Amino acid sequence: MSAAVAGSTVVVGTARETAPGERRVALTPETCKKLVKAGADVRIEPNAGAQAGFPDAAYVEAGARVVDDATGEADVVLCVQAPTPDRIARLKSGAVLVGLLQPQADAARGEAITSRQLVAFPLERLPRTTRAQAMDVLSSQAGMAGYKAVLIAAQLAPRFFPMLTTAAGTIRPSRVLIVGAGVAGLQGIATAKRLGAQVEGFDVRPETREQIESLGGKFLDLGVSAAGEGGYARALTDEERAEQQRRLAEHLKNIDVVVCTAAVPGRPAPKIVTAAMVAGMRPGSVIVDLAAETGGNCEETRPGETCDVGGVTVAGPLNLASMGALHASEMYARNVFNFVSLLLKDGALAFDWNDELLARTVWPERATA
User: Fold this and answer.
1) What is the distance between the alpha carbons of residues 336 and 314, in angstroms, rounded to a whole number?
2) Which of 32, 38, 150, 285 is an S-S bond match for 191, by CB 3.0 to 4.6 Å?
3) For 14-37, how does the pLDDT look when each residue is reduced to its tens digit (9 = 90+)?
4) Catalytic residue numbers?
């Protein structure tokens, strides 16, 4: 059933992000102009896009109003990370909130959303279907994270990535292993290959072999297959994990750089690289664990830190997508605009709950008739 919200012009508001280290913004001048063209009254807080390279003047030129409180009276609030519970409590009752909200990860946040009767769309819940690709914020941001992770690895590594022939002799290329071949992993493989490394990709989903090889990487086959639903891997059984770890431990003895990207939706990151494997790696090796935010793929990872473990550098960077704030924001804002376009009909808000993209993304879930 569709539900329309009648009234005056839809107000779309975007506030400054408040999460530590967050430089991205959910609205760019490009998407602002599109929303204005669609009939929205767009408001944004001062300097909301400054850290991503978008000055206030660019928003004004695109048709937005720069105001101190851009979200208090907004019908639709756009964000990257969820506002604080206090900020949510100041939103208009019944407003639409769109972003990476993770309402179940914080009880106070979830309570604030429900108490204000917000129509919340946590975009991490968006079905990963063909139609939803243009709205898939997880994929667009994972691409930037995979790219940055490899650049961090190259910086930390005490060696060149490419093979070099010099007057001082030939330098052999670094051997780089990317663990996980989702969007972040594939971007990591492509980036490491461009830097001249000898690249391998490992994933428990056998269908990723073709994708890895298409980017110039070699598929590392450890004899374990765990294809799951929705393009993700399923959790391994104890026996599968033991065999995988035995073979991987032996292989890692000859690897210079490991970039970990493996994820299972809604669960802590799977532990793939054990402390014993790290101990078996050569001094000077590097591990960059992109999965640090959900616990890490490596047992030695300390989220937010870079540490030395027996001569092996283990880095657990957080919010990597924010390091590429300009392009990450451009992609994220386009994803958000494409999703919000589903809600705007003839200048008014309209909710078609027969549309699976809305029905499966909204939180709390709505009862079906």
Assistant:
1) 34
2) 150
3) 999 999 999 999 999 999 999 999
4) 128, 133, 136, 139, 232
Q: What is the pTM of this model?
A: 0.90
Tally the C-alpha atoms within 13 A of residue 354's C-alpha that lie toward its C-beta: 3
Q: What is the pLDDT of residues 241-276, one digit of tens each?
A: 788 889 999 999 999 999 999 987 768 898 999 999
Is 186 within 8 Å of 211 (Cβ atoms)? yes
Residues 6+ apart with CB under 8 A from 26: 14, 78, 79, 80, 98, 99, 329, 332, 333, 336
Reported for 111-115, long-range contacts at CB under 8 A and 24+ positions apart, including other chains, are 111/85, 112/85, 112/86, 112/88, 113/88, 113/363, 114/364, 115/89
